[in-house]
Structure formats: C-alpha cells, structure tokens
Amino acid sequence: MKNILTIAQFTVREALSRKIVIAFFAISTFVILLFTGIFAFVPFEDLTGMIRMQNKEVINISKEIVKMFKLFVIAPLFGGGLFLAIFSASGFIPNMLEKGNIDLLLSKPISRSQIILGKFLGGVLIVLANIAYLIISIWLLIGVKFGIWNIDFLSSILTITFAFATLYALIILIGILTQSSVLSMMISYLIFFIFSPLLSARENVAMFTDSKLTKYILEFLYYIVPQTSELGSIAKDLALGQRVISFQPLLVSTLFIILILYLSIIIFDKKDY
Amino acid sequence: MYAIEITNLTKIYKTRALNKGEIKALENVTLNIEKGTIFGLLGPNGAGKTTLVKVLLGIVSATSGSAKLLGENVKNYLVRKNVGYLPENHKFPNYLTGEDVLMYYAKLSGYEISKKSKEIEEYLQLVKMGKWRKTKIKKYSKGMMQRLGLAQAMIHNPEIIFLDEPTDGVDPIGRKEIRDILIELKNKGKTIFINSHLLSEVELVSDKVGMLNEGKLIKLGTVEELTTSKEIFEINISETLPDLVVKELKTKYTFQINNLKISLENANTDKVNKFMDELRKLGVTITSFNQKKESLEDMFIKSLTETKN
C-alpha cells in the first residue's frame, strides 16, 4: 500500500506541474467568485415565496433558483471538467513509459501492479480534489445564501469523479498498449462525447433499422463501452435532489474499471522495457 | 554467497516484423560476481550489456536460465530494495528539484527520508551537487544529471549498484571524482557492476572484467589476467632488415615487423635478449627497446577480431 501511495503522491505532483490542472483550478475559482458576486449583489430575498400554478402545483421560487444554479455548475463541470481532466491525464502513462524513466521505476522494489494502481489512484485523486473544491464551495455558498443544505448535491462529486475513473482506466490501458497520449485522449473523447451518448439513446437509434443483429450489437456495445452519459444523468439527478432511476451504470462501470485495470496490469507485467 | 549469480541466461527478443524473426540478445551467459568487488562489463554496441543488466533488475524477463541478486531470484521484486541503478540516458521528472529526485527515488526504494534528512545533503555534496539542490532539474546539464543519477543510485545505501555508462557526459575531473566514489563504495563493501564503453575507465577501477559480444560472454577475468597474459616487446632498429634475415628469424621467433619497428609477442625476457643478440650479430643497431603491456582496449579489439574471424 505504501508503494501505491508513493506513486499516487508523485502522480498528483506531476499533474500539478501541468498548466491544464492549474487552469482547471483557476476556472473553478472564477466560478466560485462569480457565484459569490451574484449572491452578494442580486437581491434574491425579493424573489422568495410560493407560486400556485393553475393545476394547483406549488412552486418554491428559491428552491427553483437553487436548482438552476446547481445545474449551471454540474452540466459544464461534467462536460468541460472531464474534458480537461482527460486532457491532463492522458500523458501520465506515456510519460512514465519513456525510455530512461521506466527503467528507473522498474528497478525499484515495486511490483508492476502497484505502479498501475498508484498511477490510477493519483489521477483520480487530483480530479476528485478539483471537483470537490468547486462543488463544496458552491454547496457552502448556496447553503449560506438560501439555507438549503442539500447533501445529495455533494454526492455528485463522487459520481463525476467516478465517470472520470472509468475513462481513466481506459486511458491507462491504451497508454500501456500504444504509449501514445494522443490516441488515449482521442479514444476517450470519442467514447465520452459520441459513443456513450449514442448508446445511451440506442433505443431511438434502433428505430431506424429492422435488423435484429444491429439491435443486439448496440445492446452489447452499451454494456461494454463506459456508460459515462448515464453517469452524467445520475450526477444531475443527485444534484437536483431527484430520484435516480437506475444505479446499474454504476455497477457496470465498476466492473469495467476492475476489468480494464486487471488487463492493464497483465499486459504491463508481460512487457519488456 | 555471490552478490550476483547468473546461470545460463538467455534472452530472445521476438521482432514484430512479418518474418517473425528473433534476436538473441543473450546466449547462455553464466557469471558470478563476488560481494565487495567492482565488475566491469565490456562489449560493442548491441552486445547485450544493457539487456543483461535489465534482466537482473526485472525490467526485461529472461527467456531461459536464472539470475540471483544476493541469493534471491531476480523475479522477486523485493530483492531490488538492496539495489541501486543508474541507467544510460536516464530521465527524471523535470518538474522536480535535485533534492526532490533523491527523496522520491529513496521513497520508491522503501527508504523513508525527508527533504531535511542528512542523507540528501550528504549525497548531493558527495557528487558535488550541493548548491543545486533546490534547482529544477530541467535546468541541469548532462554532466549534472549524471552526478544526480549517481547520487540517486546510492541514496538508499544499497548493497549492489548497477551503473550504465556512469561517466557519460562528465568532464575529466568529474570522471576522476566518480572513480574515487566507486572505490570508496567498494571499500565500504558494496558490489558495483559497471557497463561502459570507456575501457580505460573500467580498467582503472574494476577488479574483474567480462566481455560480451553478440550476447555471449567471450572473456572473463581480472584486468591483470586479461592484459598481462600477452606481453609485447617493441624493438626499434636503425635500418630495414633484409627479407632473407626476416625469413631466417621467423623460423625461431614470433614477431611482427613494421618498417623499423619489431613487435615480439609471447616472449619472455630470455627470448627477447637472444633475439636482440642475433640482431646485433647481424650488425643491426637497436635504437630503442620497450616492454609494452597490452591494454584492455588492445584486448577488446583483438578479442572482437578473433570472434569475427
């Protein structure tokens, strides 16, 4: 465990040496300051109260405002935040595998599985810290301003980090196989922005075809490709205090992470450097 | 117990080419290195020197045979706790400072130290890098990186230290300092394994030398054994010897003649005296005479030529 923590510690250090992580922190700080400014200068107290709709549904205005603010944070954080996180993490493995660097690392009394797990833990920790910094700050600001202390909002920290962990496991595997940060990044973006949303809407896609085989393929792909789109929906539902329809994507993604990391370790273990 | 035991070690690399060729990087290498000695491994480029070290350090897996460090199979990664390594063209993360590098690699070796630990100061001073400890290593020169690399290999006080081209990029004064460090380490009972192209460097510090060519260990012995077995006597004469005389002398002695220089090989003092007497009898004037000891470099080149032939 000590070895894993040492590798993780220096992965965090490596991440911090990159401008992209600093940019992530800077953007988060900007958003926090923006919210602080809005909460300080906009008189939301005047907007509080209830609206009774025609269908007799009662809407709490301040709660709706809070929901809007939460959505304003979660949606860009899931898309933009993970975009930056993938960008910064895609180089961890190829950099480690550079000649002269990997020789030194492998000559130390550390097993190859510990190296992979350390790299994984370090990458996940830095993203967790970034996301936690932003969400906890916003949660505090909303709590102080509106007196709404919704703990579920905080759970989106874990959901978004978990979505990153799923993609990061894949980044590690591709990094070990190809030693290419560009390829790791491209495949991750492809899954995150195209395949996962497409497979999430596979039932709509399947309407355009009668082929049963296509439907089976889509269904099969849905369960093997990281379900980041669904994880995004879970993060959003949790943040807004809505009921999560299914936690199945969490289970599938956990299995995906375990399998991909196991595969990475086996391949890394067999390679000569 | 030896510090390093290698038995019939073979490493075959499978190439990815369509013909699925194989490269035999090491072929049945057997070698034992005693504790507290400096061993120099020589060989031309591509001889398999780095592969041998990498197999010993678990960076590359052997195809067959076995290797042990301090009595433990090299497949057990924990044995590397007692091993230091300076690879050729090593790369440290460039966002670290000199002291960070030592702290990081010591930690990875299972040796817990902090930036304030006396070991960091001690080893940086030893390699003359004390004043650069807080400078980011991206600003270091090649020689400075090499010195830091050496400190990194020693920081956790290992029993065996592998050095791949340790004086690469280091100026002559630096080389002398590194040699002194190696001798000091040896005196402390450490075992040092050096891979180097600089034969004169290896000759100056090594107790034992091995020579690898095309994956095979073709020579093994002390520097003395490998260089003094064939002593060469050089005799310079004042005029060219007639062909008939050369022919006559060659029936009794083994020598090479190059204009006015005669090189006698495998001759003892008696034989040389007799040879010179015969020259004098023939009226040849001897202008100078010297006993040339074969250097490691001579042995190296000769061995390679012999293997090729």
Provide a compact summary of the structure:
By secondary structure, chain A is an all-alpha fold.
Explain the overall architecture.
The complex is a heterodimer of chains A (273) and B (309). Chain A has helices at residues 2-16, 19-41, 61-89, 92-96, 102-106, 112-146, 151-178, 181-200, 202-206, 212-224, 228-239, 248-270; strands at residues 50-52, 58-60. With 273 residues, chain A is mainly α. A two-stranded antiparallel sheet of chain A has the order 1-2. In chain A, a hairpin with a 5-residue loop joins strand 1 and strand 2. In chain A, helix 7 (151-178) packs antiparallel against helix 11 (228-239). Chain A starts with a helix and ends with a helix. The mean pLDDT of chain A is 87. The model of chain B has no long low-confidence stretch (mean pLDDT 88). In chain B, helix 2 runs parallel beside helix 4. Chain B folds into 2 domains: 4-227, 3-Layer(aba) Sandwich (Rossmann fold); 231-293, Alpha-Beta Plaits (2-Layer Sandwich), CATH 3.30.70. In chain B, the strands form 3 sheets. In chain B, strands 6-7-8-3-9-10 form a 6-stranded mixed beta sheet, with helices on both faces. Chain B has a 4-stranded antiparallel beta sheet with strand order 2-1-4-5, with helices on one face. A 4-stranded antiparallel beta sheet of chain B has the order 12-13-11-14, covered by helices on one side. Chain B has 309 residues and is an alpha/beta fold. Chain A binds chain B through residues 2-3, 6-7, 10, 13-14, 17, 95, 98-111, 270, 272-273, and chain B through 13, 54, 57-61, 77-81, 83, 85, 87-93, 95-96, 104-105, 107-110, 152, 162.
